[in-house]
Design the sequence.
């Protein structure tokens, strides 16, 4: 299975060499990579372009600045037509050598049904690996995807059917908060398969320049909870559900109905009415404390 990788690049020379080397060291060797640079032409750009001269599987494209979501999603359209799977890479992580092999093995048997592979991550700091992201125990679902993302982009691999769907819908998703959350919602929403691998496959580098952090840990966790009280979580759900409306006809009838009921519950007047309406739905976050926090946000109109 030929895997096409989109590496989103933006103006930081730190660690990109380690990231590219870890991709070159994959046990699954049938891959190509497009480095999509939407930042100013800097030392990082020069480093990235130099790799294309040493490895024919890697190409470089200078893209218009449009934000990380568009850089990744539109990057899928830059992959060669013969790619049978699509993946995303950040510029500062380290992939375990079996990352692609595990994904390819998991995705092999789904044929024309869209399927998305995702996995846990090691958390890497200047002190080395300090732990792993949370182990999610509830199965992936559209009901979960409406309020939470469990599919980090740097672990996602899409089979051919999911890749084709993501390419076709990319222009419709320009306003989403996060491309990985969008893909979790899209693939689960159309009745596709979402595979969550409990084994970490990426060393996710946690540092001050991350656009989004490993949300279950330390200061990032606290920052995310404070963001709820500022209305950011509600705004993010607004962005995601607006994009889902543009692909409404692609959703299964069951998920169309769930989306309608979810949006109606969010609009219910009064805290108790919102809470009652939301609790009638199957939507649930993975962790008990996390879900209780969500329900509190519903009461306060922060979700």
Sequence:
């Amino acid at each position: 299975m030929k895997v096409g990788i989109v590496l989103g690049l933006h103006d930081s020379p730190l660690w990109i060499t380690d990231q590219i080397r870890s991709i070159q060291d994959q046990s699954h060797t049938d891959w190509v990579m497009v480095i999509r640079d939407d930042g100013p032409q800097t030392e990082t750009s020069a480093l990235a372009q130099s790799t294309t001269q040493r490895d024919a599987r890697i190409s470089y494209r200078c893209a218009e600045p449009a934000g990380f979501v568009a850089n990744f999603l539109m990057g899928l359209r830059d992959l060669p037509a013969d790619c049978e799977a699509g993946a995303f890479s950040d510029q500062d992580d380290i992939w375990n050598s079996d990352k692609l092999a595990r994904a390819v093995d998991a995705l092999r048997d789904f044929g024309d049904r869209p399927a998305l592979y995702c996995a846990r991550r090691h958390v890497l700091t200047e002190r080395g690996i300090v732990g792993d992201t949370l182990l999610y125990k509830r199965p992936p679902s559209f009901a979960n995807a409406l309020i939470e993302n469990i599919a980090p982009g740097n672990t996602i691999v899409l089979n051919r059917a999911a890749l084709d769907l993501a390419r076709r819908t990319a222009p419709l998703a320009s306003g989403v908060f996060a491309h990985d959350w969008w893909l979790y919602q899209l693939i689960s929403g159309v009745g596709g398969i979402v595979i969550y691998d409990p084994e970490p496959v990426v060393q996710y580098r946690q540092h001050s320049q991350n656009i989004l952090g490993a949300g279950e840990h330390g200061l990032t966790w606290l920052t995310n909870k404070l963001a709820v009280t500022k209305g950011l979580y509600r705004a993010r759900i607004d962005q995601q559900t607006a994009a889902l409306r543009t692909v409404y006809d692609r959703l299964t009838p069951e998920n169309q109905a769930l989306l309608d009921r979810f949006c109606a519950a969010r609009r219910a007047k009064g805290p108790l009415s919102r809470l009652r309406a939301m609790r009638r739905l199957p939507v649930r976050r993975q962790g008990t404390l996390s879900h209780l926090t969500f329900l509190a946000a519903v009461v306060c109109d922060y979700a």
